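Q: Can I borrow your eye for a moment on a structure tokenisation matter? Would you mind producing a protein record, from residues through to fold? Write it directly below this note and I will take it from there.
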Amino acid sequence: MDKWEEQFLREIVELDTNSDEKKNYAVCAEVIKRYCEDAGLKVDVYDSMHDGIPQPNIVATMDVGAKTTILLCTHYDVVPAGEVDEWTRPPFELTVEKDKAYGRGVSDNKGNIVASVSAAKELIKKGSSKVNWKILISPNEEIGGVWGIDYLMNGPPKIRGDFGIVVDSGPEYVSHGASGVISGTMTVRGTQGHAGYPFKFANAIHLSIPLMQVMLDFADVRRKVESELLAPPGSPHMTLWGRFSMTVYNAGSKTNTIPGKAEISFDCRTIPEERVEDVVKDIEDFFEKAKEETGVEATLEFKTKHAGWGSDPTNKYIVAFHEAVKEVDDPDITIAADLGGNDGHYFTSHGIPTVCYGTLADDNNYHGVDEFMHLTDFEKVKKVLIHFAETCE
């Protein structure tokens, strides 16, 4: 990482752009715009302004007059730092130690922004690219992308290209698909009252336990759903599979009070071949069955419903990108699909073949404490993007 790249990364990591508070979005976008222009890119900014909060989307273009346009998808929003006192380095300062750069978002996804822009800078300087680029740098990815990449693709800008690269994945394999995600909350109702008189009230915590026990069976149902797309290396299954997890439990306020409400939130992962609407219906049906079996009064509310996606691995652009990775990194690197979800479906929904690749290595602690990025992965991603642009036609 040279001084220009390190300073670019430092300036955007120091800005807390967490997706809960949505602060510093405009400031971060200005910094990114400045570095993109310094790299020689033409910059357009499209602000999707939502609830009075600026949410600038940057489209940085490298136009070499080619027939083919590649879309690179990145994002500058991050998840909150969480328990800051558990970090061994300041989350919103860039700390570079040996082969690692630390800070919230350094891997997911600000390092990938810098790698993409730096790759374009080198291509422009050399005049070696055989394709046009549009680097899409958005907010809102960590909470669904509606005012980010979705806005760029489906809103007034209507950005289009021939091939998409989601620079928001790992370097261990090339991904040509991702899981869908459905999340929501089951709310169990009881009656609140004094804990000294438990016989007078319906304890929502106690009621929720049998309901959750039945819902655990849905995890087994989902586990039997299999995709044709290969799972990442090291996975317990050969291909992607369905998953269901209860992930958050909220109930009670004081030890001497019987809780009248318990909330159980869940995360359900779909395979690319499934329709989100069908899986939502499956969840609803199983939930109604659980209520009937347990006699528990409860309601179900969905928070997110995002489809999975997959692209044909024999597509010429995907084959070319895979070859670029093999030539730069490892001739044995495989192609598979992601267990997590990402913004690739905003491309594939418009018939744009798509892959994912980036700096998010398995050990990076992204979304966790002491997030970091291997500088060797940063260089690898940059070199792959450059090599692909120089060899793809």
In short: The domain at 180-306 is CATH 3.30.70.360 (Alpha-Beta Plaits). The radius of gyration is 23 Å. The chain has a mean pLDDT of 96. DSSP finds nine helices and 20 strands in the chain.
